[in-house]
Each structure stands twice: as structure tokens, then as C-alpha cells.
Design goal:
mainly alpha; 65% helix; 4 helices; single chain; 0% strand
Length: 110
């Protein structure tokens, strides 16, 4: 009975220390997370999401709505919006965080 009480106490202490460590790590990461969230375009999180239907052939107006730019935007602004959209939707964008992806990619190249 006493050994189970000691084990439960040690488990609670370990959980407390782990929670404290996680909170400290989150406080240190907060400025970096804010900066990362601000760098995303507003339409990446549904703010400027185009909810309308699609026409059989995409028009300039519809393309501008999908990219979240004005139909009269400059070519550079359109290119930048397109690049951001492609980077956000690329299937390999989080490959650096996953070690298993590198193995599968290297196997498929051989």
C-alpha cells in the first residue's frame, strides 16, 4: 500500500515537472510563433476564402478571388500570391520536420 502511494506521488511530481517545462518552452517560443503566424497570408486561414462556385473556364476575376488579390493587381503581386499559395499547398512543405519522409524519398529515387 505504501509503495503504491509513493509511486503515485512520484508520478504526480514527474507530471508537474513536465508541465512546468512545457509552459516555460511555450513562453520562449511565443514571439517566434507570433511572427510565423503574421507571415502567413490572411486567406490561408479562411479569412479570404473564395466560397463561390467555379465557372467552366477560369476567368481573370475568379483567379484573382482564389489568389486573394485585386483583379487589377500587378504581375509581381499576382506572382507572390501564387507562390505563397503553392508553398502552403505543397505536399512536401513539412518534410524537414519528419525524418521518415527523407527515407521514403531516397528509396524512390534509387
Amino acid at each position: 500500500m505504501a509503495s503504491s502511494m509513493v509511486a503515485a506521488g512520484l508520478a504526480l511530481a514527474a507530471a508537474g515537472f513536465a508541465g512546468r517545462y512545457a509552459m516555460q518552452a511555450m513562453k520562449q517560443m511565443e514571439p517566434q510563433m507570433k511572427q510565423a503566424l503574421q507571415s502567413f497570408p490572411k486567406n490561408a486561414f479562411g479569412g479570404g476564402y473564395y466560397r463561390g462556385g467555379f465557372e467552366p473556364k477560369m476567368t481573370k476575376r475568379e483567379a484573382a478571388l482564389v489568389l486573394g488579390v485585386s483583379p487589377t493587381a500587378s504581375k509581381n503581386k499576382i506572382r507572390e500570391a501564387h507562390r505563397k499559395l503553392m508553398v502552403l499547398n505543397h505536399p512536401d512543405r513539412d518534410e524537414a520536420t519528419c525524418g521518415c519522409c527523407h527515407v521514403e524519398v531516397s528509396k524512390s529515387v534509387e
